[in-house]
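Sharing a chain and its predicted structure for anyone who wants a worked example. Both blocks are below, sequence first, tokens second.
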Amino acid sequence: MKEKQADRKIVLFTQRVEIVEAYQERRDCADQRIAEFILSAGFLPVPVPNSGEIAAAMTASLRPAGIVLTGGNSLVRYGGNAPERDETDRQLIGEAHHLQIPLYGFCRGMQSILDYFGETLTEVSGHVAVRHVIRGEEPETEVNSYHRQACTGLKGGELVAVMTAEDGVIEKVRHRSLPIVGTMWHPERENPFRETDRSFLMRLFQEQEAAGGKERKDL
């Protein structure tokens, strides 16, 4: 067992910013189930502080098998108050882009991916604390939803819409050639974790070399 644990490859994951006025502190934190979800897929989860400089240093030094951009905090251009989070996400997406590191973003993480590649978010209703059906390239499925901002149409650039809700909100995207994928649902909020989410993360972070520069339609 110890040998198996030691063989786990590192996956970096981001954290939300919590502002504690009483102590004049800006704290980084994450739901414990995010790390548990990454571990359940066979990887060693390592949190990244909200600093673009530190994120770049960690990526270069640790050479992770993958990067996960998590939920929480709206982007500043859409009303958020955590510019350091925006900086960290952009830095990590840039590193993933440049170094061909697989990257998965959920909820706010997918919003960061959309923003990085020039797509626009809009206010949506009926997507907070609900479950709904999504359809598209993959089999129809039901997912959770905890967001007020989303994308309802891509500009035809580097991202492809994979799955969409009935009201037109795009629920999953993938990059046309890079191992970069985003979903609007939270895999860590499923109890137990969905096997489809776990196996997806394993494929994304383990099979990037086999995918090469081809369009990744299996993610």
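Comments welcome. The chain is about 30% helix and 30% strand.
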